[in-house]
Design goal:
Blueprint: E1 2-4, H1 10-13, E2 17-19, H2 25-35, H3 39-43, E3 54-58, E4 61-63, E5 75-80
Parallel strand pairs: 1-5
Antiparallel strand pairs: 1-2, 3-4, 3-5
């Protein structure tokens, strides 16, 4: 499936879009981490939860559930939320 990578994570992938595999978002990030070591930790914390500043959209619909089921035709966008004061 196609995955959109935010600019802050492109140092890992070298591209704004990459292909990845996984039956769930969790499996997708495991696959990405095998290909691009360290990227999962930037998205998922030590407790296995999506980091607060990360947003995930599957086919345009937001989710924070890493057990969200995926199809090979899905488009996944990882978006870094802006924060500050």
């Amino acid at each position: 499936m196609q995955l959109l990578i935010p600019a802050a994570l492109r140092d890992y992938t070298g591209a704004s879009r990459v292909d990845a595999d996984g039956a769930t978002l969790n499996a997708l990030f495991d696959d990405l981490d095998r290909r691009y070591p360290g990227i999962r930790f930037r998205v998922v914390d030590e407790q296995g939860h999506l980091r607060p500043n990360m947003r995930i959209f599957v086919n345009g619909v937001g989710t924070r559930d890493l057990d969200h089921a995926l199809q090979s035709t899905d488009f996944v966008a990882v978006v870094l939320a802006l924060s500050g004061g």
